[in-house]
Design goal:
The chain is α+β, with helices and mostly antiparallel strands. The chain folds into 2 domains: 197 residues, Multidrug efflux transporter AcrB transmembrane fold, CATH 1.20.1640.10; 96 residues. Helix content is 64%, strand content 9%. It has 10 helices and 6 strands. Helix 1 packs across helix 7. The longest helix is centred in the last third of the chain and has 33 residues.
Length: 329
């Protein structure tokens, strides 16, 4: 980040590019909806149900030996644990009922649906212990999620996103004007839909950590949007006869260095997590990296453009701010 070479004042005419930005956004949203409809999301264990096992990696217990010993199809990867130890992460869903033994197939369909994952989990663990000489202490993690629980987690995750968007709408409406709230929430919905589309396109695992990343993206994008809106409101009241387009361009240019500094330092940490954190953290870190780019873009070309289209009515006396918050400069 060569910010010291960044000019003290820029005069980029962002709003003259808003139609091009709107076209790019329309294409990305259309592509995202297409991929979500045709390919769907690669739901992780949290939402699709299944088991995640973490095994201590040794000279004899490797990705290859674990994969060879697995009695059923599974995803086996190496990773780094929270204590910096090398581990092996095994993910698998419920096996076909015909492969779970006569005792299981004799159960009623309702009982099979409830017990399939646990029975599969028990068989996998016993097989690995027998073939690789493992003990219970070698299994650092052994978590199973049934179909009923995973469905509830998925609904709760989507509800969290909807509630976050609704609360953001109410806050911006209260803090600014309805035009600003429409622009801000449209930008947030834009960011979430396109991020989901990228996950569908790349078939990255979508789990609870991804939901957490999406909520973080919403907060980050909203923070950037509020900074821009606060400066727009300030400049609008300072230059009452200046055209709205020029006010918004001037405000965006005044906050541009702050946006680059905040985004750049955050990206440095996220790229480190993405490349060094292993496959367990890759989905979450990718969502955050993409969210910073798309969030910064939407603050300029979506939120601000919508405010320009709807117009600004800031001539009335602003409500007194009892919190003392004056916006981030």
């Amino acid at each position: 980040m060569l910010l010291r070479y960044w000019p003290e004042s820029t005069k980029i005419k962002f709003m003259s590019l808003r139609m091009g930005g709107a076209l790019v956004s329309l294409l990305m949203i259309t592509a995202s909806i297409y991929f979500l409809a045709m390919r769907g999301l690669n739901l992780g264990v949290d939402f699709a149900g299944g088991t995640v096992m973490e095994i201590q990696q040794t000279e004899t217990v490797t990705v290859e030996t674990v994969r060879a010993a697995m009695p059923y199809t599974a995803e086996v990867n190496s990773a780094v644990g929270t204590d910096a130890r090398a581990i092996i992460v095994v993910k698998f869903g419920a096996a076909d009922p015909s492969k779970l033994g006569d005792e299981f197939t004799a159960l009623k369909p309702e009982a099979q649906a409830e017990r399939a994952q646990q029975v599969t989990n028990d068989i996998v663990k016993e097989t690995l212990m027998e073939k690789l000489g493992l003990t219970d202490q070698d299994f650092l993690r052994d978590d199973s999620v049934g179909p009923k629980v995973s469905g509830e987690l998925f609904r709760s995750g989507i509800l969290a996103l909807v509630v976050a968007l609704a609360l953001m709408l109410a806050y911006i409406w209260f803090r600014f004007e309805w035009q600003f709230s429409v622009g801000a929430v449209a930008a947030l919905a834009h960011d979430v839909i396109i991020t989901l589309g990228v996950f569908s396109l790349l078939q990255l695992e979508f789990n609870l950590t991804t939901i957490a990343a999406l909520l973080t993206i919403i907060g980050y994008s909203m923070n950037d949007t509020v900074v821009v809106f606060d400066r727009v409101r300030e400049e609008r009241r300072k230059y009452k006869k200046m055209p709205d387009r020029q006010v918004i361009d001037q405000s965006l240019n005044m906050t541009l260095s702050r946006t680059l500094l905040t985004s750049g330092t955050t990206l440095l940490a996220l790229f480190a997590i993405f490349f060094l954190g292993g496959p367990v953290l890759r989905g979450m870190s990718f969502a955050l990296i993409w969210g910073i780019f798309i969030g910064t873009y939407s603050s300029i070309f979506i939120a601000s453009s919508i405010v320009l289209s709807l117009g600004m009515d800031l001539n009335k006396k602003p409500a007194e701010d009892v919190t003392g918050f004056q916006g981030v400069r």
